[in-house]
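Hi Q.,

Before the meeting this afternoon, I wanted you to have the S-adenosylmethionine prediction in hand. No need to reply - just skim if you have a minute. The sequence and ligand are here:
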Amino acid sequence: MSVLGDVQTTYRSFAVYAAGSSPCFEEWALGVVDDHEVQRWLARLPEPKRQPNLVFAAARWHGLAAPAPYDHLRATLLGDAGRIRATSMERATQTNEVGRLAVLVPAFASVPGDGPVGLLDVGASAGLCLYPDRWSYSWSTGRGAVTVGPAAPSLHAGVSGPAPLSEALPEVVWRGGIDLNPLDAADADTCRWLLTLVWPEHDDRRVRLEEALDIARHEPPGLRRGDLLQELPGLAAEALAALPHGGRLLVFSSAVIAYLDVPGRERYAALMRDLLTDPRLHWVSNERPRALPAVTATGPPPPPGRYVLAVDGHAVAHTHQHGRDLHWWD
Ligand SMILES: C[S@@+](CC[C@H](N)C(=O)[O-])C[C@H]1O[C@@H](n2cnc3c(N)ncnc32)[C@H](O)[C@@H]1O
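Predicted structure with the ligand bound:
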């Protein structure tokens, strides 16, 4: 396929992904699909830097207001004197969505055993998902609301199916993470970039992100810089050694594994299966269907745009990409 064809395909599928969630980003992506001049502008970026989330955030970083009509994006990109291009080259999409905890916590609760846990977040970004015990949860179910935890701050998700909605929050005795580029919640520029990555209409996510950054600033997570394939075995061994008797280590990832190339994804799945031979260790993944195809295949086919939530390599639910709801099956 031609480079412009690739750009069109990427933006067309992003429009599907954004549909019903961000009318602005859907309109912008569809605008690009029909706009050869903007496609040529994008095609001059290296392939990984053409992704809509990154380019839209870079344009907003340099002052483009959103929501706004597509013409504003078009004029901003075509009039760029190099700053938007430079920001796209320098930065990465490291959206850290703490709302995903509302779907991860039921998966944590479904892990066999009880007692204290260690949490190892693979592809942690700023590590904001390492504090499930600092939030309260309100899950709407067909049988009414289920709540757990103190009053604030709070996360909400709609739930269908028999998800294990625990009555208690996990007791976390160890937290750590790995990222190619760990982000520091105490750094103002980093916080501004993370806030810019939140989609335009998602004011609730921006509020939540501020709260999550505040939590991480007060208790900075131990984040290791490096490639997850290299760093995971060593960090998992450290975490296991630090656990009290009876403790379990939950190694989890959300919205990360699709960043690896296909051989890397296969190596990650094999590495996790190796690590699972230790009965104290469990694996929770909340990933796009194509990230871990063998895991995805253990459940029903996911509807478009849904993530696959899995425990120890077995799919248990389909989830909203930002943790707004989950469907757990019997
Ligand atoms: C979209 S963010 C998701 C962050 C977080 N897990 C969440 O759900 O909010 C993906 C993160 O994975 C990290 N990442 C991608 N490839 C990686 C690799 N090979 N090793 C370590 N981290 C990686 C990126 O740097 C980024 O911070």
